[in-house]
Amino acid sequence: MRANSYYHERPQLLELLHDLYNGYLSLVDRYCQALSNNQTPNNHPSPCSSPIPIFKSDDESEVIDSDAESSLSFQPPMIVKTKEMDFDTVIADLVMKTVECNIILNEVNVVKKRWGESSRKIELQKNLLDVLESERLILLNDNATLGTE
């Protein structure tokens, strides 16, 4: 319910999700068509069928102005309604991926914190080693001085 209200408050994000989903279905349909074209002819129907139309442009003289193309990118995409579209599922998947991403980011932050603590401990141990080495040299010098007396 919370995710549903979140996406209704942000229609551009929902439009982007619709566009991505439509693009995905279009790619699936193209893939299935390519598979059916490469298969030997038989009487089996293609396992992939999508009601999404595939638009092919054979007119190579058609040129799209870059300003027109960039202005078209800001227009909301045309939504094709199909029975297979289940936007609640798409939104739920998006929310799940976001949660997974947040979990991974949290784990990365924990590892970074441990790494920072470990590097601090290493630095402190190096400083302690330097102090102990200087004390050893002082004691060696004192022993040498006492030995000559």
Which properties best describe this structure?
NAB domain-containing protein; coiled coil; mainly alpha; actin binding; 149 residues; single chain; NAB; elongated
Tell me what the structure shows.
- The chain contains four helices and no strands.
- By secondary structure, the protein is mainly alpha-helical.
- Among the domains are: 37 residues; 64 residues.
> What is the strand tally?
0
Per DSSP, the total helix count is 4
Multimeric state: single chain
Secondary structure category: mainly alpha
Write the element-wise H/E pattern from the N-terminal end onward.
Answer: HHHH
Gyration radius, rounded: 33 Å
Mean pLDDT: 74
Query: What overall form do the CA principal axes indicate?
Result: elongated
What's the N-to-C terminus distance?
A: 89 Å
Keywords: Coiled coil
Domain NAB: 1-38
GO molecular function: actin binding
InterPro entries: NAB
How is this fold's topology laid out?
Elements: H1 2-9, H2 11-38, H3 66-73, H4 87-148
GO molecular function: actin binding
Protein name: NAB domain-containing protein
Organism: Phtheirospermum japonicum
Structure at a glance:
This protein has 149 residues and is mainly alpha-helical. Helices cover 71% and strands 0% of the residues.
